[in-house]
Amino acid sequence: MTIRQLSVFIENKLGRINEVTKILATNNINMMAFSLAESTDFGVLRLIVSDVDKAAEVLKEARFGVSLAEVIAISLANTPGSLSKVMERLAGEGIFIEYMYAFSSGDVANVVIRPTNLEKCMKALETCDCNVLSEQSFA
Amino acid sequence: MIWNPTKECMNAEDKRLLQGERLRKVVDRVYHSVPFYRHKLQERDMRPDSITSIDDITKLPFTTKQDLRDNYPYGLFAVPMSEIVRIHASSGTTGNPTVVGYTRRDLAIWSEMIARCLSAFGADRNDIFQVAYGYGLFTGGLGLHYGVEHLGGTVIPASSGNTAKQVRLMRDFGTTAFASTPSYALYLADAMKESGISRDEFKLRIGIFGAEPWTENMRKEIETKLGINAYNVYGLSEIMGPGVSHECEYKCGSHIIDDHFYAEIIDPDTLEPVPYGQVGELVLTTLTKEGLPMIRYRTKDLCSLNPEPCKCGRTSIRMSRIMGRSDDMLIIRGVNVFPSQIESVILEMPEFEPHYLIYVDRVNNLDMLEVHVEVRDGFYSDEIKVMVELKKKLAARLHSVLGLHAEIKLVEPYTIERSEGKAKRVFDRRDIK
Q1: Quick check: A122 pLDDT over 60?
Q2: Tell me: the pLDDT tens digits for B326-338?
Q3: Which of A5, A38, A67 sits opposite B380 (nearest CB)?
Q4: So what's the pLDDT on residue B93?
Q5: Which residues from chain B sit within 8 angstroms of residue A69, using beta carbons?
Q6: Taking CB atoms and an 8 Å cutoff, what residues of chain B touch A115?
Q7: Whole-model pTM?
Q8: Do A41 and B382 touch (CB under 8 A)?
């Protein structure tokens, strides 16, 4: 099962990220994970939020360039080597990863993965020592 | 040296008689061989014998670039194609390019025009000319090329680009005269400095610069950096190509080759003639051209005219530097660019909103074109490479239409002003005045 990630196009201008977080806050939308990819003159903010449909709607209203992408979120033990095992497995299956980002707190580490081939990646993860998260688990 | 003193130093009255006679002939020719001109003259109840002196030129209708496009490709040619020996065309445009055709005699006259220019720059048959204008449909390369041969000099047909090679050729082949756009000359000057080759190893002494407007400051910079004399040459393909006018050793305006081209200055709004010395739009009439005669062609270039004989001995009328354009055409690195061309490329691509801004800058003496666009909803991506791909795709399409690299900047939705009226879309930040 995949989850929907929100991407926001942002020009390299002061205060733009602040604008996004402010809009989400006023609409009572919680951010679970967040990453910023940058290029020379623009960046793409990637967000996992509590209500992705509403977030997309309010950001579009505020005239942001928004898109949704399917990604896979997993949770695994926050111990040395647990992510390594998963990555080794994915590499062994020939799964190419476009990008990923992670965050951990306490015993649990969460990882967002955007593979080139979602289906293949999901299948490989079934046999890994990790939990694949659903959108509901972030709501 | 003056290449053709009989024509270049003619007294004013003889020149007027010659121009009047040639105008009568060219009007007679276009009336009988180009339906476009015949209809326009008939609309005004004019016949070839309405022309009795050069002063009658103001009675004639204007011709524009649009007329050339409307009659694409050969509609305004005044001779059968069997008489045409060469074709040139303007750089790509949104609509039809403008196509020009030359008879053997036209090419002979063009070569002589260039020989006159080069002589006025102090060049002669002992000089070695490196022509770094583009060779091809553009008139710059081949125009200069045959002019050098006519003069009797040696021509190195280097064509444009490949700066390292230009520098090497210049040193190894003992180039004494160099032809390019003025901005490229400055670029080249830096490259020569970086090459580490000492100035003594270059024999360069004359620069022949045109195809884009430039300033007195640029001239000083080029002359200092390259240690040469830099001269302006003006022209446009619709009239002939480079060589329609040229400076002399006094660098006080460009001598129009006025036994072949008659110049007027008009107010671009009222279309009325303006007095000598006043800036307006340059209008040119070809007095001797066979393939594609042009009657009162509106160049859209803004300048002024000076009829006073020059200290060099030439009596031909002189034009000032080009102060700007009376339309929205931009000249970027010598290439004609209409904002409408950029617009049409953007409109054809569903990935972008139909709004854009165009910025032109001169960075390190090189013209830079930057286009700002908004991505359309549905084409945003979570992947940077997909977004960068959008930029590349637009740049590639623009390159194929303009023949010029444009830097693309993606901007956030609605950051480009929407307006139904005359939104300002073009920001030319170069200082060429």
Answers
A1: yes
A2: 887 888 888 888 8
A3: A67
A4: 46
A5: 381-383
A6: none
A7: 0.71
A8: no
Total domains in chain A come to 2
**CB-CB under 8 Å, A65 with B380:** yes
- Which residues lie below 8 Å from residue B67, measured CB to CB, with a gap of 6+? B36, B76
Decide if B291 contacts B106 (C-beta within 8 A): yes
Nearest to A7 among B382, B411, B412 (CB): B382
State the DSSP code for A121: H
Instruction: Tell me: do A12 and A43 sit in the same domain.
Output: yes
List domains and CATH numbers for chain B: 5-327 (3.40.50.12780), 335-428 (3.30.300.30)
pLDDT digits (tens, 9 = 90+) for B69-93: 999 999 999 999 999 999 999 864 4
Is residue B354's pLDDT more than 60?
yes
Question: Furthest-apart CA pair in chain B: how many Å?
Answer: 74
Q: What's the CA gap between B255 and B258, in Å, rounded?
A: 8
Peptide bond into B73 cis (omega under 30): yes
Domain boundary among A70, A102, A120: A70
Interface contact A44-B382, CB threshold 8 A:
yes
Under a CB-based contact definition with an 8 Å cutoff, are residues B336 and B351 in contact? no
| B337, B300 contact by CB (below 8 A) | no
B414 near A CB under 8 A: yes
Query: H or E stretch including A101?
Result: strand A97-105
**Do residues B323 and B279 lie in contact, with contact meaning Cβ atoms separated by under 8 Å?**
yes
Structure-token pair, residue B69: 């496009």
Q: How many of the other CB atoms lie within 10 Å of CB of B60? A: 20
**Which domain range does residue A57 map to?**
3-70
User: Quick check: A6 and A55 in contact, CB under 8 A?
Assistant: yes
Single-letter code of the amino acid located at B255: H
pLDDT band at B153 (very low <50, low <70, confident <90, very high): very high
pLDDT band for position B221 (50/70/90)? Answer: confident
